[in-house]
Specification:
The complex is a heterodimer of chains A (393) and B (241). Chain A is 58% helix and 18% strand. Chain A has helices spanning 3-16, 18-56, 80-89, 124-127, 140-145, 154-160, 202-208, 227-242, 253-296, 298-306, 311-348, 356-382, 386-391, and strands at 60-65, 93-108, 111-120, 132-135, 149-153, 170-173, 176-184, 197-201, 216-221, 248-252. With 241 residues, chain B is of the alpha/beta class. In chain B, α4 crosses α5 (144-156). Classes of the chains: A alpha+beta (393), B alpha/beta (241). Bound molecules: adenosine-5'-triphosphate and magnesium ion (MG). Chain B: One of its GO terms (cellular component) is membrane protein complex.
Chain lengths: 393, 241
Amino acid sequence: MSLSESIRVALDSIRANLLRSILTTLGIMIGITAVIAVVAVGQGGQQSIMKEMEKFGSNLFQIRLDWRRDELPSGTEFTMQDIEIIKANVPELEYLLPCADTYSQVKAGNKAKSAQISGTEAGYACLHPLEISTGRFFSDSDCQSGRRVAVIDEELARELFPRSSALGKKILVGNQALLVCGLFKAESSPFAMGIKFVYIPTRVWLDIYPDGGISYIEGGTRNPAEVKTAMQSSIKILERRHRSENLYQGVDMEQQIQAVNKVTGVMTLVIGIIAGFSLLVGGIGVMNIMLVSVTERTREIGLRMALGARRRDILLQFLIEAIVLCLLGGITGMALGVGGAFLISALAQWPPLVSWATVLLAFAFSAAIGIIFGLLPANQAANLDPIEALRRD
Amino acid sequence: MIKMERINKIYRPQSNPVHALQEVSLHIEGGDFVAVMGPSGSGKSTLMNVLGCLDTPSSGTYWLGGIEVSSMNSDQLASIRNRKIGFVFQNYNLLPRMTALRNVELPMLYAGVENKKRQARALDCIEQVGMLDRIHHRPAELSGGQCQRIAIARALVNSPDIILADEPTGNLDSASSLEIMHIFQSLHRNNTTIILVTHEAEIAAFARRVLHFRDGRLTADEILSPQHLKKTPLPKGGEDI
Ligand SMILES: Nc1ncnc2c1ncn2[C@@H]1O[C@H](COP(=O)(O)OP(=O)(O)OP(=O)(O)O)[C@@H](O)[C@H]1O
Ligand SMILES: [Mg+2]
């Protein structure tokens, strides 16, 4: 019997027991729905994180003090002198920026807002995709002379100066008045979470927060291939200067991506296990109903054999019926899963990612369940004795 | 066409063996019309199952159209059943979800006949049994006699060498039984080999030859005289079925 005929017979028999078939495929449907939805949302999230990290740049690295240590030995903090010496000794470096962060109040007139106050240097604007909309980022000479200037994001600017442009206005950070020399477009990523940013020269930052210190060093090379060596040479110099080991930790893009992949890998595994169990249960349901179907249709099987069906024709017929049943569940599940993914993503505010691979995988998986769990009933049908089967009522 | 030599069929040979067929030898020519008679349990259905390649004999040899089938495997037997044998059952055995037309097409699906030819051939055979006006009906919408006619059409579609009918009129009233027998008679006239099991002498009277069974043994082999045949009443219009 041809494949199209077999499928027709399968659909006929599914239609004849519609309610039962729908209930049977429910398990498969729910399993596939869950997998598709979770994977789509997960991949969408991963892609968002990756995009975020790509902004970080592949020619970038950061060196931080080991954050796992409760107490750092004294004399290990980064100094401005470290920066000068590293710059002089690591030729691959294009930029080396001492950076410092804190979260604090920004005032203008009678308004006050919280923002992240980041001390950095002119090179920051080159290493990061900061989009300056008005004015400029501070220059090297601003940094060296310690001019009291600030670059703030547009949203903060609007909140502090609702009536006029913030450019050229004074803002108050800590006890220092700073001149707004540039505005940049606020990021609209879901991970920014509404945080406002203020960039000021590191020297100025250290003046405002004399108790704080440089919290990390950011380096950039001309060639992305040189990031590792530049980072390692820098760390060596720091270790030698501060006579300590394993205290300075470098991070580059590659390591960050690996870290994210590790997290998503674990997530995928957990989802996979849950999905596996739900599909297993669904598959057992299909097997059960197929066994019922074989029993109910014993006479039909006997007749088909009498009319010339070979054992493998019968086997195939029931196998195809099981596969069609699972695919119906799988396809419905896919549709529901994609819908669910868009719904969840709308709430989580990142785009879902429904890849062809996921859809194909779900499709293949439902078919595979049909084959695995259809095999026993189909085999039972194929091994019936035609005379016995014909006599059954 | 058919040659059986010392066929035995023993059910449950280990525990308490039932000798359903014992040393049956027979020869049936192509185009013959044979009735098989005998009391209940005498082995008539068992004989039909062996003849129809649904079952294999415990011993003995069976040639069908010059081929020895007693030692074939199940796939080969399926193919023989499909191409060489047409079954007609007492309870019709039509698939309830399919229309009459689809039921008749069924044996051709396993013969791999392509779609268009399949339908044309099915309609041909349905016409032979006079059921063209009911092709889209399901079995539940047909009378017993009509169901049996569709079943005969189904038995005919692959142009089998023999038609095997195990009590085809067993579930029918006498009027429908006569109609069915006239169909068999016209098939016989077209040189189809027919073997038919029956309890009723009036039905057996349509055949040319009657085999009598008792306790699994062939006890009598009777050729009915042509005069006898002529004596069977033909209803009006019976000729043009
Ligand atoms: N599968 C089986 N297992 C055991 N014994 C069987 C089996 N099938 C048939 N028999 C026995 O074989 C003998 C012949 O049975 P068969 O069905 O051929 O009789 P029959 O002549 O067709 O009878 P009826 O006229 O009642 O249909 C009977 O005694 C029956 O009990
Ligand atoms: Mg019988």
